[in-house]
Each structure stands twice: as C-alpha cells, then as structure tokens.
Amino acid sequence: MTTKILIVTGDAAESLEVLYPYQRLREEGYEVHIAAPARKQLRFVVHDFEPGFDTYTEKPGYTWPADLAFSEVDPGEYAAVVIPGGRAPEYLRNDPELRKILKSFFDTDKPVAQICHGPLLTAAVDGLTGRRVTAYPALELDMQAAGATFQDTEVVVDDMLVSSRAWPDHPAWMREFLKVLRTKAPVT
C-alpha cells in the first residue's frame, strides 16, 4: 500500500502552495489527497509581490477538485499533512472537523508541513506552543501569541514540523519536509 499524504485547504488558497507540494510529493511516490470543507471544485488564488505595494497582491488562480470533505477524512490513513497558505486558513481555522484532523497529526507526532498563512491552522489546535516556526512575515505576532518562537527564514524544522514563509521558499520547504518524510514515513 502506498504511503498517503493529506493536503488540507479551501477556496482562496495560494495556487502554488497547494499544487507544488501536491506534484512534488506525487513525484516522490506518495499518494496525495486534497481535503476541503466539501468535495467541490476549489478556486485558488495567486499572490504576487509587485513593486510599490506594501503587501502581496491577489489574482484569480487555478481551480482544482477536492478529493475529500474534511468530514470524510480518517487521519489514521495518512502519514503526514501539508497545510498551504493563502487566505483559506483565515476561515478554515474555524472548522471543527479540520481542527480534529490537525490535532490528530500533532497527537500522534506525524510530520506536518505548513507555509505562509497555514500556521494559523496549527495555532488553532495549540500545535505551536514551545516550537520554532516561520510563516508569512506579517504573522510574526500571531506566531508569538500562539506560543511559538518566530524566525524570519526560508525554512524552519522543529522535529516533525516544517514551516516556510511563502511560495518563493518552496525548494527549501520541500527539501526539508522530504528529509523528515523519508525518515518518519518513507514511500512504501
């Protein structure tokens, strides 16, 4: 049986932060499922950095089908979880089904990869207390309020938790996450 990885996301997730790990993990030989609040065609966005703007800009991105609704996910079937950023984490952190899923990964010490605004979800399940993390730099105070030590660097590995700032950091993020996976949840 192939080792399964779960990606949890929703509408307004950053396109690259969903699709890059989805494709990279499949390339590595993992079976990857995308879960969202409901089985539907998700609408992602593109966050870009443009001269003259104080923050990122947002444009329509790709659409992609969710394989599962959060209510259909059995966390025990998955070796790890990936939490993309974008605007999706802002509202997903209020979903009780998703919070149960994420808590299960932390309770069983399974690998978790988070990027950009994704740590808003791990903060919602008290998964950041006492940890070192990075996230989109504007979330530094949120990470500190969640009990984490924030580091503004392309990737931070804290045991099974691998975090990055945003899609420009993908190579370092996936390189470090794959090191954790190869040790804790190798492809079978």
Q: What would you note in describing this structure?
A:
- This is DJ-1/PfpI family protein.
- Residues 4-179 form the DJ-1/PfpI domain.
- Belongs to the peptidase C56 family.
- By secondary structure, the protein is of the alpha/beta class.
- The chain is 31% helix and 27% strand.
- The protein has six helices and eleven strands.
- A seven-stranded mixed β-sheet has the order 5-2-1-6-7-11-10, sandwiched between helices. Strands 3-4 form a two-stranded antiparallel ribbon. The protein has a two-stranded parallel sheet with strand order 8-9.
- Strand 8, helix 5 and strand 9 form a beta-alpha-beta unit.
- The N and C termini lie close together (7 Å).
Topology, element by element:
Blueprint: E1 4-8, H1 15-28, E2 31-36, E3 41-48, E4 57-65, E5 68-69, E6 80-83, H2 88-92, H3 96-107, E7 112-115, H4 119-124, E8 132-133, H5 140-145, E9 149-150, E10 155-158, E11 161-164, H6 170-184
Parallel strand pairs: 1-2, 1-6, 2-5, 6-7, 7-11, 8-9
Antiparallel strand pairs: 3-4, 10-11
Structural class: alpha/beta
* Secondary-structure element pattern, one letter each: EHEEEEEHHEHEHEEEH
Oligomer: single chain
Strand order of the largest sheet: 5-2-1-6-7-11-10
**How far is it from the N-terminal to the C-terminal residue, by CA?**
7 Å
Our count of helices gives: 6
Poorly predicted tracts of residues: none
* Rg (CA only): 15 Å
Average pLDDT level: 97
Q: What is the 3D shape?
A: globular
Question: Care to count the β-strands?
Answer: 11
- Helix proportion: 25-40%
**DSSP strand (E) fraction?**
25-35%
Let me know the largest β-sheet.
7 strands, mixed
